[in-house]
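Listing S7. Sequence submitted for prediction.
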Amino acid sequence: MKQLGLLIVVVLGLYLVYIFSAQKSDDSSSSFEQFYVEDIAQVQKIEIRSDRLETMTFEKKGSEWYLQRGHLARENAVNNLLEVIANLQIKYIPQAAANKNIEADMASLGIDVVVSDKAGHVLKQYVIGSSVADERGTYMKLKGAKQAYVTHLPTLEGSVRGRFLMRYDDWRDRTIFDVNTDDIVSVKVQYPRQESESFELNEDRVSSMSIADKQVHPTQKIDQYLNSFTNIVAEAYENINSNQDSIRQLLPFCIIRLQLESEAQQTIKLYPIENYIDQSLVTLENTPRINRYFVDTNRGDFMLVQQRIIGKLLRGYSYFADDE
């Protein structure tokens, strides 16, 4: 009986040693095979390399992110990227028979991602492969690891690959105008085909504005108009549009020039994109028929903006003259 009791104690002891060792091994493995960055606030730099597109570099300056050519990054796109970096999880281990194809896929289509902190220390580095067949996971492998995994974002029903793979302009901030009223010195709006509706608002640095060379006190319409130069955001960049040079040769529907206190000037030219509208007939009265405009900016960008966004800036002299 004593021998049986001793045997049970030995077996239990060996079992506990096995459980402890296995748990320790699993902890070590899970620590190494962790794709997400625990403290997203530490992330200062993100590099995305792909053979198919330009290498992207994002650097955080203050509360904003900038791209390698100095452009401000689009907030929504960066937030989507950071969401993946902070919450990426392993979904399952692919079958061993699939490993050869996964490795070949990563070699040809892989996206290399390097996430670093302010000191330049690499927080996480991995290769993103293709999506799984049902598009509900993405093949990934940590730098230096042998095993590839199927990963996913718990809040996303789909692959995360698309959040890393975009053209340079798709990462850029799309703001056309975002100016505080106090920073505006003058606004000049010209309608080349309807000059009677063209006007200019000039600040005299006291309490009145001039419109069409007439001094007027600020009215509710003028105040509202000047306050409208905030959050005017384009739908997309059209810098690779093969027709942009010929479009620029057309007579624009509207030209808006904004002079700022900083002495900087922002100028845009608008061209309606609807082919069914005869350019010669485009007037302020036609704007409800227009959905989008091509935008030629003085900073060299060619963009696309919706009427519902830019429409509040498309006012004519008659709109203000009613208040004189």
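Caption to Listing S7: primary sequence and predicted structure tokens for the chain studied. Residues 175-321 form one domain. The longest strand covers residues 122-131.
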